[in-house]
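[agent] plan:
  1. take the single chain provided in the ticket
  2. run structure prediction with default settings
  3. attach structure tokens to the ticket
  4. add a short note for the reviewer (M.T.)
[agent] executing step 1
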Amino acid sequence: VQLVESGGGLAPPGGSLRLSCETSGFAFDYYSMSWHRQSPGKERELVARITQYGGDTRYADSVKGRFTISRDNAKSTLYLQMNSLRPEDTALYYCARGDSHFDYWGQGTQVTVSS
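[agent] step 2 finished; step 3 output follows
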């Protein structure tokens, strides 16, 4: 099982980024998936989750209305569209398999929001 995030980088406040999580080694459309983030000195936070076919999505209150989780089962890839970015969104972002029990994680991609 592999999960590889990409798409992080530096964005200005109010800007946008789109994260991707390419997966392999398992039946992607069999599992719910999720995005998490962690800033230095803070606990890891569950940002968003999505069911196997995308029919149900849930978000942390801190990102609701700004972030959108989606997936392409044909490509075994998970996405996180992040709009209206704020400095407090700065963190290392991880994708994980599962939406309540998380058994595999990617290595993370850094998102920095700064002018």
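[agent] step 4 note for reviewer: The longest strand covers residues 17-24.
[agent] ticket updated
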